[in-house]
Amino acid sequence: xVQLVESGGDLVQAGGSLRLSxxxxxxxxxxxxxxxxxxxxxxxxxxxxxxxxxxxxxxxDSVKGRFTISRDNAENTVYLQMxxxxxEDTAVYYCNADxxxxxxxxxxxxxxxxxxxxxx
Length: 120
Description:
The chain is mostly beta strands and 120 residues long. It has strands at residues 3-7, 11-13, 18-25, 30-39, 46-51, 57-59, 67-72, 77-82, 91-100, 106-110, 114-119. The strands form two sheets. Strands 2, 4, 5, 6, 9, 10 and 11 form a seven-stranded mixed beta sheet that branches. A four-stranded antiparallel beta sheet has the order 1-3-8-7, with no helix packed on it.
């Protein structure tokens, strides 16, 4: 089974920056799109950013111009650089990977989540 290992969540003051990392470990056939989602207290989970294997990106309107998603295919890692953080960005951030397993099943895997707290 694939495991997505996330890191980088922390407590930061408004205006600060954080970089989240997510690495897919164990065996799989290939990684397709990867992305970051978040769930704030009392809110529905929302997409923050996604990136295809070729590097095309999509961002939520609320983070455009502030967040940047990138990936290192050789390292099976996706990053989320978060700048100009706002209290509204406070949420648990989850890494997602669309992948093909070793037995060729198409599966979505999720990380455990990393807490980002932005204080005012």
